[in-house]
Amino acid sequence: MKKTLFYAAFALITLSIAAFTFSVSGYEPGTAATDFRLKNIDGKMVSLADYKSAKGFIIIFTCNHCPYAKLYEDRIVAIDKKYKALGYPVIAIMPNDTINYPDDAPSEMAKRAKEKGFTFPYLIDETQDVAKAYGAIKTPHVYVLHKENKQLLVKYVGAIDDNYESAEKVTKKYLEDAMNELVAGKEITVKFTKAIGCGIKWKK
Questions:
Q1: What contacts 103, CB < 8 A, 6 or more positions away?
Q2: How far apart (Å, rounded) are the C-alpha atoms in residues 173 and 21?
Q3: Of 122, 106, 95, 128, which Cα lies nearest the Cα of 198?
Q4: pTM (2 d.p.)
Q5: What's the DSSP call for residue 110?
Q6: Per-residue pLDDT tens digits for 80-134
Q7: How far apart are CA 132 and CA 125, in angstroms?
Q8: CA 164-167-169 angle, 5° bins
Q9: In terms of Cα–Cα distance, which of 134, 152, 144 is closest to 182?
Q10: Beta carbons of 112 and 92 less than 8 angstroms apart
Q11: Residue 47 forms beta bridges with which residues?
Q12: 65-94 pLDDT, tens per residue?
């Protein structure tokens, strides 16, 4: 009986450690990210290498059904328009399990992008490998990349701002502050914030 309880406790601790490790793994500010190749809503494959003139990227893991993600859509469009002109386009990635969450299926992604006037690629991470590599756990979850010495260096990770409910009530524009410092050639003051949103829906 004692041995059974011991093994049960050991298994629980092991699972807890594994879950914690998974939640904190991924890219951090200062690390180098790898490129990916994912399908866009138009059926074309997209890679960061396709953007020859880009100075970097604003990678945002997002989706259709999450209330938080929906509230940020207009802000993401505005961010793309502002920083794409400065060499940092937005690349949106939908990482959710579309079997259990059909609102996030490719056909629905295309509809949503058209309705909201997305000005950026809206890619689907079908295997969820990219989300896992990045360490994304929320929608939305932001990663700012900068091209440097033939690498994609992570400069900022986290939230878009401090008020998901209303753009008018935002007091701290984390992403824009980081981007403005990056564009100006300055050291980013706040490199990491806690992403706020729906948890990514992982496949079972």
A1: 64, 65
A2: 29
A3: 95
A4: 0.88
A5: H
A6: 999 999 999 999 999 999 999 999 999 999 999 999 999 999 999 999 999 999 9
A7: 10
A8: 90
A9: 144
A10: no
A11: 37
A12: 999 999 999 999 999 999 999 999 999 999
Cis? peptide before 102, omega within 30° of 0 = no
Hey, what amino acid is at 6?
F
Does residue 178 contact residue 190 with C-beta atoms inside 8 Å? Answer: yes
Query: What structural domains and CATH numbers belong to the chain?
Result: 2-199 (3.40.30.10)
Please, which residues have CB within 8 angstroms of residue 13's CB and are 6 or more apart in sequence? Answer: none
| 11: CB partners within 8 A, 6+ apart | none
**Could you write out the DSSP letters of every residue in 178-197?**
HHHHHHTTPPPS--B----S
Q: Which of 24, 61, 19 has its CA nearest to residue 197?
A: 61
